[in-house]
Design a protein that fits this description.
globular, alpha+beta, Alpha-Beta Plaits, four-stranded antiparallel beta sheet, Four Helix Bundle (Hemerythrin (Met), subunit A), 562 residues, single chain, 3 domains, Formiminotransferase-cyclodeaminase, Chain B, domain 1, 14% strand
Length: 562
């Protein structure tokens, strides 16, 4: 079963006193197994977004400790800032990351709330997917009146807290209240304008956000129009799953539109940016850049990169790093301060620190291979050679997409480059996996064998590891052979000046197939399950023969041209 991981994103009402912020954030890592990912303070909002991740029970413990420390150090009676707030730890959402559903995360949100109310004496409300009623789903409703309105709100029967004291006691005077939720991944995203006008920023926010704006009898003034239930009639905004408000940020001397993108599958960051830009231009304004608060999933950045590449009619078959650069520059994410992908993209922060072959330099990889160790060996080298081969095919596709006079064919070449990138990424992953598979066999032989039970467990472990060490080179064979289609297509359709590059790509792919075939045969002979062994050998031989035939066909074609 996969390990359950949840992310916790408490927003504390302190964005200026770095010592306090660091003290509060530091308590997170006093809980074993919890990783602090990001601390993002804002001076104008006087608010800091803290992000950490771990298994649910550990995250709950870390959240309780953080909320307690924030209550000790932050005095809400003296707080001011641009952002709506009603507590020292204002909101504390739990976000499912891996192996856990949103519904299960909501159960943990309730567990956290109960502890906060009982152990810390802080009142609060459950919102979003943890809400106890429809009226409390919206955070804005729970936080209405802010800190200054808490004295009346807590004793209002309609707004009795879901947990903690229903009174403005001594603890609450200092710490305020808290809102706790379970929600999908939310992106806090600000767009910068070339104006200082909060009113104009708000006007654009109302154009865009799902809630839109209130409708008036005279268009923009006069009486508010009411529906049959006496509720204000609203003019919906352009985008679903978007909340927004305009404000002035003294720190930067500009007005911003602050968005919460509550479902990036419905409205991704790049669409919010583009639609905002259209509305800004209509109102005589322009966007100067944007700002990401907290963290973002890698996919959201890659989708943004792809979006702007399509608009430029450029190939999408480029590296992740290049796509991220395109996204950063297109969205102006480095307008106000440097944008470091390694600090802002959640997958990069969660990366395993284990040393990987593919992270070595070219010379480092060669030195590692030449050293006095059995691995990496022929299997890893085969996978790496295959990755280099399809990289050449991908290069030809990308160059062809840029060729003058071929503009109308850019999507054709882009599609081939995207295929090439997928093959390359798979083969690079197999470089390390082949070495890992070999190490599993070694681990099996190192198991104890004193008792009959230990001998049987050792025997089973070795068999399982040997099967896996045969499956990995077979995957290398299969992937490298299939990758030949990229080079073959580019030999016919790509730039003819790069015909030799595509040819070398095929030779590399053929080498990867043959090298991996050696490993399949060597490992398969030690497998006790002969039905499995004979089946994988038969499939491997078919791929081996096909790759040799493809190589001959390509060689004949190239020699006919040069």
């Amino acid at each position: 079963m996969n390990k359950q991981l949840i992310e916790c994103v408490p927003n504390i009402s302190e964005g200026r006193d770095i010592a306090k912020i660091n003290t509060i954030a530091a308590v997170v890592e006093t809980v074993e197994g919890v990783k602090l990912l990001d601390v993002d303070p804002g001076k104008a909002t006087n608010r800091t977004v803290i992000t950490f991740v771990g298994e649910p029970e550990n995250v709950i413990e870390a959240a309780v400790r953080l909320i307690k420390k924030a209550a000790e150090l932050i005095d809400m009676s003296k707080h001011s800032g641009e952002h709506p707030r009603f507590g020292a730890t204002d909101v504390c959402p739990l976000v499912p990351i891996s192996g856990i559903t949103l519904e299960e995360a909501a159960v943990y949100a309730h567990k956290l709330g109960k502890r906060v109310g009982k152990e810390l004496g802080i009142p609060g409300y459950y919102y979003e997917n943890a809400a106890t009623s429809e009226a409390r789903k919206n955070l804005a409703s729970c936080r209405a009146g802010e800190y200054e309105g808490l004295k009346e709100k807590l004793v209002n029967p309609d707004w009795k807290p879901d947990f903690g004291p229903a009174e403005f006691n001594e603890t609450v005077v200092k710490s305020g209240a808290i809102a706790i939720s379970a929600r999908d991944f939310l992106i806090a995203y600000n767009i910068n304008l070339n104006t200082t006008s909060t009113r104009r920023a708000n006007a654009i926010a109302f154009d865009i956000r799902e809630a839109g704006r209130v409708k008036y009898e005279n268009g923009v003034s006069g009486k508010v129009m009411l529906d049959k239930n006496g509720e204000p009639v609203r003019i919906p905004g352009k985008l679903k799953a978007v909340k927004g408000i305009g404000w002035f940020i003294e720190e930067y001397g500009i007005a911003q539109i602050s968005y919460n993108l509550t479902n990036i599958n419905i409205t991704p960051m790049h669409i919010a940016f583009d639609e905002t830009e259209k509305c800004a231009i209509e109102r005589g304004l322009r966007i100067t850049g944007s700002e990401l608060i907290g963290l973002i999933p890698l996919k959201a950045m890659l989708d943004a990169g792809d979006y702007f590449l399509r608009k430029q009619e450029r190939s999408l078959g480029i590296s992740e790093a290049e796509k991220i650069k395109i996204a950063v520059k297109s969205l102006g994410l480095d307008d106000l301060k440097p944008f470091n992908p390694n600090e802002k993209i959640i997958e990069f922060l969660l990366k395993d620190d284990t040393k990987k072959l593919v992270d070595l330099t070219v010379s480092g990889f060669a030195e590692e291979t030449a050293a006095e160790s059995i691995a990496p060996g022929g299997g890893s080298i085969s996978a790496y050679v295959g990755a280099l081969g399809v990289s050449l095919g991908t290069m030809v596709a990308n160059l062809s997409a840029h060729k003058a006079g071929w503009d109308e064919k850019w999507e054709f070449y882009s599609d081939w480059a995207v295929k090439g990138q997928a093959y390359k990424n798979k083969l690079l992953q197999l470089v390390d996996e082949d070495t890992n598979a070999f190490n599993k066999i070694i681990d099996g032989f190192r198991m104890p064998k004193a008792t009959d039970e230990e001998k049987e467990a050792r025997k089973q472990a070795i068999e399982k590891a040997t099967i896996y060490a045969t499956e990995i080179p077979f995957q290398v064979m299969e992937t490298a052979y299939n990758s030949m289609e990229v080079m073959q297509a580019m030999l016919i359709e790509g730039m003819q000046s790069s015909i030799s590059d595509a040819g070398v790509g095929v030779l590399c792919a053929r080498t990867a197939v043959v090298g991996a075939y050696f490993n399949v045969r060597i490992n398969a002979k030690d497998i006790k399950d002969r039905v499995f062994a004979e089946a994988i050998l038969a499939k491997s031989e078919v791929i081996y023969k096909k790759s040799l035939a493809a190589e001959k066909e390509v060689m004949d074609f190239i020699f006919s041209k040069v």
